[in-house]
Design a protein that fits this description.
By secondary structure, this protein is an alpha/beta fold. The chain has helices at residues 11-14, 35-43, 71-81, and strands at 3-9, 47-53, 87-91. The chain starts with a strand and ends in a 12-residue tail after the last strand.
Length: 103
C-alpha cells in the first residue's frame, strides 16, 4: 500500500510562476516542474504526493478581497477528503504578511 503525503500550502505549493517566460507563458509551472512532482519522482511508486496548494492562502486570516483562502477553515475537510494521510507537509505564512490584514 502506498504512503500518502499531503502537501498543503499557498502559491509555492500551487506552482505559481511569477515570470510567465519561465513557465511557457502560463501562470503556473508545469506539473513536471512543481516541487510536489519532483518530490513524487524522488520518492517513487511507493508514495502518493497530493498537491493541495492555493495561491493567496493564509494561515488563519479571512481575506477581505478573495473568499475562501483561510487555511484554518479548510484544512480539516481537506484532511478528511484525502484520508488516510501518512504525512502532512504545511507551507503557509507568506500571505499573512499582506498589509490588508493589519489595517
Amino acid at each position: 500500500m502506498k504512503r500518502h503525503i499531503l502537501c498543503f500550502g499557498d502559491s509555492n505549493t500551487h506552482g505559481y510562476c511569477a515570470d510567465p517566460a519561465d513557465c511557457f507563458g502560463g501562470i503556473r509551472f508545469t506539473e513536471e516542474q512543481r516541487w510536489t512532482r519532483l518530490l513524487q519522482d524522488a520518492l517513487g511508486q511507493d508514495y502518493l504526493v497530493i498537491e493541495e496548494g492555493l495561491s493567496g492562502r493564509t494561515t488563519c486570516f479571512d481575506d477581505p478581497i478573495h473568499e475562501g483562502l483561510n487555511a484554518l477553515d479548510y484544512i480539516y475537510p481537506c484532511l478528511k477528503s484525502h484520508e488516510v494521510i501518512d504525512l502532512l507537509i504545511i507551507m503557509l505564512g507568506t500571505n499573512d504578511c499582506k498589509d490588508r490584514f493589519f489595517d
